[in-house]
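Protocol check, entry for the methods section draft. Step 1: assemble the input record (protein sequence plus ligand SMILES). Step 2: submit for complex structure prediction. Step 3: store the structure tokens unaltered in the notebook. Ligand used here: zinc ion. Step 1 record:
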Amino acid sequence: MEYLINRLKEKSLKVTPQRVAIAQTIQKSGHVDIDEIYSIIVKSFPTISLATLYKNINSFLEKNFIVEVPVPNHKTKYELVQDSHAHFICTRCGSIKDISLDENRLLSSVHKDKGLGKFERYSFSLYGNCCSE
Ligand SMILES: [Zn+2]
Ligand SMILES: [Zn+2]
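Step 3, stored output:
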């Protein structure tokens, strides 16, 4: 929890009990959509509205505290900003698994093209089906 509070401060986000709870929910779930966050948060903060939750999510996005992970046929999920990794996304059930890629190999193809600029992070998704037929 202390880690999350420090991260919020680092990103100059005002630390409120609600925001800490939202951040914790996203951290625990890994990848989570707005409805899932709401159903968890409302247990501790029964008066919170979906609109307030959206406002908080939008400030988190603006300050680069969380990122959106678009999922085909499902609601967008959110995750905390962390080290670059790729996603395996199931287009059927919408589940997301983290995969780490060989960053050096990615970098070597970036370096071949000098005009591209400095590499900072990658965002990469593989789409498939993790559900049995
Ligand atoms: Zn992820
Ligand atoms: Zn699946």
